[in-house]
């Protein structure tokens, strides 16, 4: 269970696909014009991630190594097709809002990456939690982006007008909010890049100052965005270890080579005599 919770924590916080690994940027920048779109896209991706990880983990010993990637794509495509049919039937408005990006979940690098690096090498339950953690982390990232872009770009969030003349906020705060003029660029592509950059910068600043001091970092998190020296030290130690191993191998081979050379020279002398 501790391993499962670790996978869940890694996906949401430590290896967040949006703010740390920077994966799946196409839907991240395209569909996060509102909170509802972000949550819908995130939960859709989460459902496919969990199911694909479970199926691939169950079939990991059956799928031949040479065709594993095409097999993964077929599995993911089947799940996405089922998901799209369900959205068309039960949530047509969300399906229309997300559009082609539902179909593009098939080639989402988060899903194929987890299938290749984790689900194909681990048991079913940890793989399911790995997919759930990554999916929830992706959903959190899209939700934050959608919320900030919707508030700044239209003054509303989830259908409630918070800023602008039609604000639902009452009192003195409402009067202050009523003077806000929405900045429409935030619901466009340039606004998506700007908001994402700001959120990543804030996350990295908090991470560096509070949670990733050099003395406390173990240097094993390759996805860590903090600028610490432990990774450099780990690489130096690894190089020194490799050099030491090479020297030991050379020393081990040297006596044997010397004996062979000596025996060859003795044979040559005998032949000359």
TrEMBL record:
Membrane-traversing stretches: 71-91, 97-115, 127-148, 183-202
Record localization: Cell membrane; Endomembrane system
Biased composition (Basic and acidic residues): 239-252, 259-273
Disordered: annotated segments: 239-273
Keywords: Cell membrane, Electron transport, Membrane, Translocase, Transmembrane, Transmembrane helix, Transport
Membrane topology classification: Multi-pass membrane protein
EC numbers: 7.-.-.-
GO biological process: electron transport chain
Record has DNA-binding as a keyword: no
GO CC, any one term: endomembrane system
Matches recorded under Pfam families: Rnf-Nqr (PF02508)
Principal location listed in the UniProt entry: membrane
HAMAP family to which the protein is assigned, alphabetical: RsxE_RnfE (MF_00478)
Function text: Part of a membrane-bound complex that couples electron transfer with translocation of ions across the membrane.
Family membership: Belongs to the NqrDE/RnfAE family.
Summary of subunit composition and partner proteins: The complex is composed of six subunits: RnfA, RnfB, RnfC, RnfD, RnfE and RnfG.
NCBIfam families: PRK12405.1, rnfE
Protein name, per record: Ion-translocating oxidoreductase complex subunit E
Source organism: Eubacterium uniforme
Upper lineage: Bacteria, Bacillati, Bacillota, Clostridia, Eubacteriales
